[in-house]
């Protein structure tokens, strides 16, 4: 394919992706049709099928796009050489800011609402976001154990525990429609406590 042909294809892809993002967030997965997307973006149904394989492939690409900011926060753990307390605190604040956005919450609400009809979408989301993130955090904790900064632990369980402490009840409250700003502020306020209890425990020494 020529450079100009590649450029045209990329522009078509970007237009379809932008239209799909707007429509999925507004109407949900099931009620958004390929015709809706093509009608907003221009182009043709055959172009959409050629690039994305269908509506499911397009939704998964929107999902990946929305999750990239969350993925970027987890990837900061790969290069951090600060003390675990500092790294985990900075990570937690970035993680909360990335997951409690209107777009991210709406995407998860769509997945929850339609998981019974389209379980493959929910399974894909778990691979793209939570499972990938937990693996990166577990790898960071394992490196801290290997370097002597943290005591021996099961890094996978520890990663899940820490994320649960950071999110607490904010996730399900957000999914049920609670205003995001106060939820996010309260979650940020809990970060220092979550990091302290995770690293040092609650029992008296």
Would you give an account of this structure?
By secondary structure, this protein is mainly alpha-helical. It folds into two domains: 1-53, Arc Repressor Mutant, subunit A; 59-200, Orthogonal Bundle (Tetracycline Repressor, domain 2), CATH 1.10.357.10. Helices cover 77% and strands 0% of the residues. It has helices spanning 3-27, 34-41, 45-52, 55-75, 84-99, 102-114, 119-128, 130-146, 155-167, 170-175, 180-200. Helix 4 runs parallel beside helix 8 and helix 8 (130-146) crosses helix 9 (155-167). The longest helix has 25 residues, at 3-27. The model has no long low-confidence stretch (mean pLDDT 92).
Summarize the structure.
This protein is mainly α and 205 residues long. It has helices at 3-27, 34-41, 45-52, 55-75, 84-99, 102-114, 119-128, 130-146, 155-167, 170-175, 180-200.
């Amino acid at each position: 394919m020529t450079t100009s042909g590649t450029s045209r294809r990329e522009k078509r892809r970007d237009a379809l992706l932008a239209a799909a993002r707007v429509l999925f967030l507004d109407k949900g997965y099931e009620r958004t049709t390929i015709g809706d997307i093509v009608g907003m973006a221009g182009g043709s149904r055959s172009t959409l099928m050629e690039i994305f394989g269908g509506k499911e492939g397009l939704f998964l690409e929107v999902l990946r796009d929305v999750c990239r900011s969350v993925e970027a926060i987890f990837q900061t753990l790969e290069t951090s050489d600060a003390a675990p307390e500092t790294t985990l605190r900075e990570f937690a604040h970035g993680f909360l800011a990335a997951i409690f956005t209107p777009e991210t919450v709406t995407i998860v609400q769509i997945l929850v609402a339609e998981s019974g009809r389209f379980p493959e979408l929910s399974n894909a989301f778990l691979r793209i976001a939570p499972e990938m993130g937990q693996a990166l955090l577990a790898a960071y904790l394992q490196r801290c154990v290997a370097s002597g900064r943290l005591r021996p632990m099961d890094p996978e369980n520890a990663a899940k525990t820490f994320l649960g402490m950071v999110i607490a009840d904010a996730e399900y409250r957000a999914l049920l429609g609670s205003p995001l700003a106060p939820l996010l502020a309260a979650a940020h306020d809990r970060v220092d406590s979550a990091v302290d209890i995770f690293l040092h425990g609650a029992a008296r020494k």
